[in-house]
Amino acid sequence: MFAKKFVNQKFLLNEILSKNVQKFINTQKLATNPYNKSCLQISRRHLNSTPLSSVLSPEQLATSGAAPSTTSTSAPVDVMAEDVPEFPGSRSKWTETLRFILPEHFEGIPVYRVMNRKGIVIEPSEDPNLSQDMVTKIYKGMTILNSMDRVLYESQRQGRISFYMTNYGEEGTHFGSAAAINDDDLVFGQYREAGVLMWRGFKLDKFMAQCYGNCDDLEKGRQMPVHYGSRDHYFVSISSPLATQMPQAVGAAYALKREAKGRCVICYFGEGAASEGDAQAALNFAATLNAPIIFFCRNNGYAISTPTHEQYRGDGIASRGPAFGIPSVRVDGNDVLAVYNATRQARSICVDESRPVLIEAMTYRIGHHSTSDDSSAYRSVDEVKQWHQKDHPISRTRKYMEHKNWWNEEMEKSWKEEAKRQVMSAFTNAEKQLKPNWMDMFTDVYHEMPDNLTEQMEELRKHLDLYKEHYPINNFKQ
Amino acid sequence: MSSKILNKLSHNILGVVAKRKCLSSGGMECWNRSVTHFTFNPQTPSTKSGDTTRMNLFQAVNNALDIALTTDPTAAIFGEDVAFGGVFRCTVGLQDKFGKDRVFNTPLCEQGIAGFGIGMAAAGATAIAEIQFADYIFPAFDQLVNEAAKFRYRSGNQFDCGSLTVRAPCGAVGHGAMYHSQSVEAYFAHCPGLKVVIPRGPIQAKGLLLSCIRDKNPCLFFEPKILYRLAVEQVPLKDYMIPLSKAEVLVEGHDVTLIGWGTQVHVLHEVCQMASDQLNVSCELIDLVTVLPWDKQTIINSVKKTGRVLIAHEAPITGGFGAEIAATIQKECFLNLEAPIYRVCGYDTPFPHIFEPFYLPDKWKCFDAIKKLINF
């Protein structure tokens, strides 16, 4: 910051230079030397004890692992040669060496984890020490989401609902992050975040109602299945166009900041959606407008059939954050404790410092993209099996709980039966309900119904009076 | 139009166009054209309006924004270059008065501006976004059409972005060529959930903009940029609103119905006079005002009386909003029509630079159409 101010204020720079040249040069070196590796050791303990901005600045992140430059080690020369560029567009030093910054110079951003695949916490000080109740709630949530996924996936296969998307393998990202934020923080999702809504108490009946588009659906049967939304749960209705929610989430975060009630926004998206123009808009707007928002990227390796090496050539999504001036971190998305820790810390930065944070959760999409997709057409069954068996957020959490003696085989068995019973009961109930009244097709287009829609609704009413036997009118509320 | 105003206008457009880096330094003399294709017809405020003051269109917009921010503490204005007052001066003084968190620049990214506005509105704030030229609204098309317009419907009225208004300068300006001249209303008229509004002068601009900002639906407010400085009226100082979806009969007549909006209303106003003087034809002039949802009834009533219709707009004819109006009139007034419905519009070409005088649906083209309508 010290050096940046000088860059922007030439007169001040000159004044200081003339007063105390050597002092300035020393300060500048300290403040801007990106190769000061001691700054880069980032752990939760550091973050707890030190204001984050002093530990994890974007420029430090951006240059982590870069090869040392020749200018930074050269001996002090003529004073005037040590001046700094005055271009308004950057905060740089001069260099007389032509050197392109190569992505190869950067190590991949490390994946933060708390427990290993056996559920053993590696660094005890990183254990968030969540209560037994909380971990049990997370575990039960993940497993019941898994049960619901199985039932609804099958029901689509049987033609009972038109479409479905499972959450297999990504349950940890949902519950770990949802548990770390406040229940009235506003959520903008993509479509594979049902666990967040479930954590907040959205009932199985309501999930099913949405998928069936029945008269209990809060969205009145207007959207495709899995496009959930609930005002009561601060979960903004999902829409199909990818990444559109990202700049919207930034706007909402800005509005919450002005409201000054300490709320923030979390915005989920996949690594494929991150290629959309809206993603770049969102990151840039959030940074420049200081919006309190957590960008949460689920990097599960695929966007439908497209593997990540066809999606991007950089170091995933997390590496883009520092380029926008956004504190960023990469976590093991199958480690619910790591996701929890990262999201919790991100929330503090957001709210306390009023700035965005980017979390990239590395995971693997175990299920097909959707019920309209057969993923064996583009990836091997063995690859999927590997992730399912060796590195699954549910089994890892279960192992963690077993180490603590919070869970055992017997409890597992009875919970599985209970979960299945709850899911099946909601399922049968949802299937029995009528669809909403056909007139709901015309409402809510506008706040008020304009004349053209009133006319069109009347036209349809008259038409149905004459031709109702050709329409599925008995499935709909009268 | 005084030369002083014209010079200011030219200067302003020049600055903005150069900003977009799309023109070379040549050909500047043609920007000092001393004729416009219309004469602005100022409106007289009603006697009940209270105190008024002379304002041009950009000042009326500024005044509406000032009132909107004063009366609604959640309201914020944002877009490219709005902080210093905007490239058309519409937001002058507002940042000083209301603070940097309420009037601020965004990065140069239209899809971001629209998305950001939708999000602000969804979180309960009043969002007034500016797109620098309507020509550059297309990067935000997805956000406006797939998101803003459908936000309430798809959530079952749990969420909405009704407190979003997007303002954008539109229409011909004499030398704006392809990307500083477009009239984009028809693209959005095909999108249920949006409101599309275009004023014809300062009094209208203020009242309609306040209505858009306070309406519970996402609104697109297109400001004819050629009127920013050129259109001057005695604008009421008070906080007032003009209803949306209500067309206005500006001149009553009984032979031909003329329908237009924005600048074109002034072209048609001159045509009314020409038709009366030279053809002894009595024209009824209607300003549509709101393109979506539009006021069918006012138009149907007029056509039932006159039996002849001319619709004129600057945008290209094919797929233009005139087609929608014509089809509706044809269905509702079939037995009253005495001649085919005429549309005098822009040609089906991109908006040209040096050919603008030939491109526009000017008064002579409209006058000729009236002759044909009468003699059919």
CATH superfamily of the largest domain in chain A: Thiamin diphosphate (ThDP)-binding fold, Pyr/PP domains
Number of strands of chain B: 14
Biggest interface in this structure? A-B, 49 and 49 residues
Return residue spans of chain B where pLDDT drops below 50 for at least 5 consecutive residues: 1-34
Class of secondary structure makeup of chain B: alpha/beta
Beta percentage of chain B is: 15-25%
Radius of gyration of chain B: 20 Å
**Overall tally of structural domains of chain A:** 2
CATH superfamily of the largest domain in chain B: Thiamin diphosphate (ThDP)-binding fold, Pyr/PP domains
Tally of individual helices of chain B: 14
Q: Could you give the count of β-strands of chain A?
A: 8
- Outline the biggest β-sheet of chain A: 6 strands, parallel
Strand order of the largest sheet of chain A: 2-1-3-4-8-7
Secondary-structure element order of chain A, as H and E? HHHHHHHHEHHEHEHEEEHHEHEHHHH
Number of self-contained structural domains of chain B: 2
End-to-end distance of chain A: 66 Å
- Count, helices of chain A: 19
Measured between the Cα atoms of the first and last residue of chain B, the distance is 37 Å
Domain Transketolase-like pyrimidine-binding (chain B): 55-230
Cofactor (chain B): thiamine diphosphate
Keywords (chain B): Mitochondrion, Oxidoreductase, Transit peptide
Pfam families (chain B): Transket_pyr, Transketolase_C
